[in-house]
Amino acid sequence: MISLDQLLVFSLTSLLLIFTPGPDIIYVLTRGVAQGRTAALAAALGFSLGNIGHTLFAVFGLSAILASSATAFTLVKVAGGIYLLYLGFKLWTADPALLLSAQGEHKTARIIFRQSIFANLLNPKVAIFFLAFFPQFVRPAQGHPAMQMIILGLTFVVLTMFGFGLVALGAGALNSRLAARPALSAWLHKGAGAILMLLGLRLIWADR
User: Fold this and answer.
1) How far apart are CA 27 and CA 32, in angstroms?
2) Most CB contacts within 10 A, which of 23, 102, 113, 137?
3) 43 near 160, Cβ under 8 Å?
4) In angstroms, how far is the first alpha carbon of the chain from the final one?
5) How far, in Å, CA of 118 to CA of 125, rounded?
């Protein structure tokens, strides 16, 4: 159904795109620097699994609606932008000592995982990217284009987990060095919150 060379070209191209600096990888990096490795890995996993939703959107044509309807695109991007603004504000006002405690870290990781899935799904630019990117690697002569899209989507999810996981580990290591100072830790959280809010504003003002 999918040939080895088809999958190899798709994987190499995907890895180049995954490691290209963008809002999603900045989100993971920000979480890691401010809140540590566990938080960053939770964000990486959430963003990666959110791509399953975008794969299904592309297969069933929902991404095409976002690409063709200015109203639908605007509604989704504003919802996504407001959500990022909310997450950024929550992080700005959070108590770093509570978040970094053993119990708080575990609870925060679960919350970040869910938040990251929603943040990914509410980004219409990701949906349109999937709609434009995946069909380039589908070969109708091999049959079942929808199944090929699903296989490519799951491959992209695994590759994203790998790429974002590396970024999360690096950001977590940086956090371990910086967070030993309570005052600096507080500023890291405020800085991370500000970055998430800026990402939210960027999404709201994004063009289709």
Assistant:
1) 9
2) 23
3) no
4) 33
5) 14
CA distance 54 to 67: 13
- Measured distance CA(127)–CA(109) in Å, rounded: 25
Separation between Cα atoms, residue 208 and residue 3, nearest integer Å: 33
Verdict on whether the full-model pTM lies above 0.90: no
* DSSP sequence for 4-40: HHHHHHHHHHHHHHHTS--HHHHHHHHHHHHH-HHHH
The whole-number pLDDT of residue 70 equals: 87
- The mean pLDDT value for 126-132 works out to 90
Dihedral angle, C-alpha 32, 38, 40, 45, nearest 10 °: 180
Confidence of residue 5 (pLDDT cuts 50, 70, 90): confident
